[in-house]
């Protein structure tokens, strides 16, 4: 059986479980963590910079990418991708066995992506117990994705969506608006290995065993991501 995920930690004592449960109950939601990060940026960044990023979000939304992307009820697009360990994964072989959560992140340079990855790591057991497999995809090069995982302290292995080939088939790729493109001209080639100034929406899909999309999170605002609890509920609905 193909394994996308490796565990970097073990429960060493049953006595630790109550403390862990208490800690989990006090963990902020992903939305709260993202909002806190955004608030910090708003307090630190000059007004002109804030306005530039706000315009970038508005331009992406105006492009219509949220509506033209694959939606609930559409057939998922199959693909074969590799992780940094060299494992080759064909998506249809996974969803034939049960629901798949397909999640794109932009890159380890994105603090909002790192927050989301950590939140999904914390929800991984519950997600898998609900019957799904988490498949994380990114345009960043395999060695960069490995560094992202290590820096974030996660055991999730991201698959390399080279040149955003699969993301383009899902319709979630957009050209960087002119307002913000200059900020990424050096960063993206280093991480993605090409000169394309394009990114994917931070999209999350749930795909059932027939290959149909049953849940889709699509938002032009990079500061907003699918809430793990909502994804888990979508998975439970997909297995009924």
TrEMBL record:
Membership in a protein family: Belongs to the peroxiredoxin family. BCP/PrxQ subfamily.
Catalyzed reaction equations: a hydroperoxide + [thioredoxin]-dithiol = an alcohol + [thioredoxin]-disulfide + H2O
Upper taxonomic lineage: Bacteria, Pseudomonadati, Planctomycetota, Planctomycetia, Pirellulales
GO molecular function, one term: thioredoxin peroxidase activity
PROSITE patterns in the cross-refs: THIOREDOXIN_2 (PS51352)
Keyword terms of this UniProt record: Antioxidant, Disulfide bond, Oxidoreductase, Peroxidase, Redox-active center, Signal
Identification of the protein by name: thioredoxin-dependent peroxiredoxin
Bilayer-spanning residue ranges: none
CDD domains named among the record's database cross-references: PRX_like2
Organism listed in the record: Roseimaritima ulvae
